[in-house]
Prior knowledge:
Elements: H1 3-24, H2 39-43, E1 49-52, H3 54-59, H4 67-70, E2 76-79, E3 92-95, E4 103-107, E5 110-111, E6 140-147, E7 161-167, E8 175-185, E9 193-205, E10 208-219, E11 243-258, E12 261-275, H5 288-294, E13 300-315, E14 318-333, E15 353-372, E16 375-392, H6 408-411, E17 420-437, E18 440-451, E19 455-467, E20 472-483, E21 495-498, E22 514-517, E23 525-537, E24 543-558, E25 567-569, E26 572-576, E27 578-597, E28 604-618, E29 631-640, E30 645-654, E31 680-690, E32 695-702, E33 729-737
Parallel strand pairs: 4-7, 22-26
Antiparallel strand pairs: 1-6, 2-3, 4-5, 6-7, 8-9, 8-33, 9-10, 10-11, 11-12, 12-13, 13-14, 14-15, 15-16, 16-17, 17-18, 18-19, 19-20, 20-23, 21-22, 23-24, 24-27, 25-26, 27-28, 28-29, 29-30, 30-31, 31-32, 32-33
Signal peptide: 1-25
Family: Belongs to the TonB-dependent receptor family.
Protein name: FepA family TonB-dependent siderophore receptor
Amino acid sequence: MSHSRTSKLFVLSAVTLAAHTFVQAQDTVLGETTVRATAEQELKQALGVSVITQEELTERAPANDISELVRTMPGVNLTGNSASGQYGNNRQIDIRGMGPENTLILIDGKPVQSRNGAKMGRSGERDTRGDSNWVPVEAIERIEVIRGPAAARYGSGASGGVVNIITKKPTDKLQGSVTVYGKFQEDSNEGDTKRSSFNLSGPLAENLSFRLFGNMAKTDADSPDLNRTSNTTSVIAPAGREGVNNKDINALLRWDLTPRQVLELELGASRQTNIYAGETPVSIDANAPIRQSLIGEETNRTNRNTIGLAHRGTWDWGTSRLLFQYENTRRWQNPVGLAGGPEGSITSGNDKVSSKLGNYFLTGEVNTPFTLGGTSHMLTSGFEYRNEKLNDAAAMAQGTGTGGNNIGGLVGSAGERSGKADAQNFALFVEDNFEPFQNLILTPGVRFDHHSQSGNNWSPSLNATYQVNDSWQVKGGIARAFKAPNLYQTNKNYLYYTRGNGCPVNSPNMGAGCYIVGNPDLEAEISVNKELGLAYSNHNGLDASLSYFQNDYKNKIYSEMNDGTPIVVGTSQVFQWMNASQAIVKGVEGNLTLPLDGKDGSRLKLVNNFTYMLKNHNKENNQPLSVIPKYTVNSTLDWQVNDVFSTQLNATFYGRQEPRTVQTGGAVSTGNQLQEIGAYALFGIGAQYKLSKDYSLNFGITNLADKRLLRESNSSGAGAASYNELGRAYYASITGRF
């Protein structure tokens, strides 16, 4: 670290310490101070923040993954991490078009990073379902979806937004519940889901309580014939959704040290396995017999284990929070074919390759109220530390060539190379929340991160709310966010080898294929996120908002090889991951809740939200960052019929989806590669009935009109038609409580 960087770090540390010391010195006037909300609490009132409540979780319980629920929030879609079409049915949460890798998943404020243990291919895709399926819905109290400038406070990986899953807490008396759920597809070629889960909590002794939840769920794989059409000439049709088996157990022990201090210890273990449905990252037929033999088998397994410790305190000078978590992820999978094997194909055999990922996370903050110049402030100051360690031999499984084409001098010989990589990130942050003028609330902040691979990053932010009158508010914000490169991209031993069409068209195959290698000199990706809008609310339950958002994105890391000049070794060409492209994402979001009957719509209300994307593309080549709808509208008509029966009619309308017009390697898209998905709509109906005080029933129908989409290729050969939209299905669950 340079002297100037060290000085900046010292200055920020000194400012944080001085601010904390100053506020402690104000204890004598705290009794007269109007205590404001913390900066985090204020930011969660921003326009770009939505909350899925306990009631909504009950009404629209997902079949398995909570991404099914989160996708109904404004600004959220399910996509891949690029427009390549690879792993099309493993879509993940994408907030404001920034891609799943820029969506940070938290559980009770602690980052979830298990997906980082799956190797990243050259298109930016991973063979993973992401990190939204580690907590069963029955164990969740609420889900916070944080978009735009408000998300910048959470550090690397939050450029798009944050999904914070808040779990249920221990109770002061013994209580529990058991839920059994089933979802059955009308088409027998589509996989059904069955789930059973339990929750138990209560006191163990004076000042000591616990919470325990467990879950077993299985979603069957789609039939290999599901996507077969008259145009399908391959031995195996494009893959449908792979199945998944979940097993989760989690225990939390809470100790109330004093009435104002709490200590919590949490242990969790999860196991997810797939049920293979024929997925490959590229469209190939040569290995079809092997693919056929693996259909219905487990080809990858992920174990995630966590241990966490949390302390929260209320003091004379304010409040504090200290969190620690160790997350251990072990992933096993069938080997993937190398170039010519054929490239990207999954291979048979009992010898699975493995990766190990360890994440250490520690964060602490204090919230201290004080008065300055007659104005009440709430100062938040704190730190964060992350340490990520990866060991994945498959990251360097490709050969380095022979003879005059041996690139071992660039990455090291096989005996010298290692699949081990690690990175550390240390951050300090300061935020304030105050009202400089009547009805104007400002929340400025600054975060400093030092990343061992990509150096220093400053993330200033400013969010504001102006209360025009009792009903109208103007809200806005601007923040700089960043994402550090992942451990595959910076590992100098990472190696990806491709032949034939994998080489870029402006640098054609010279005979020995093309390599992509890791780049330890990568810089962090940077985005400047802006948001401005209006919010309206009255005392009769009418709520509305309209906001404009824009993310200016630079230093995006990619390896499409279009713009780079390769190093030539014999007749081999060597490329690197690189910082090059700039992108822009902008659009409009809004919501409208109309009370139709009862106080504040308590009997009947119509809840709506929408997102309209104005731009979502790479400035260098005008290609989309991911394939997302031009617009999305979610509507729910919620009717509380009486005290024991309620029902909802919901609809989602999706706009046109356009694929990339330039392929990986620079080839111009042609034929089916340019295929769009036209606008379509999905309708559903659900109902809840309280059978008794202790038993309740939830049932309904999804995709009432049976609108279906079929995947037409395992990669970009189908354009935007790279995923399945499931047909009509029937679901029911019963919950017993005591």
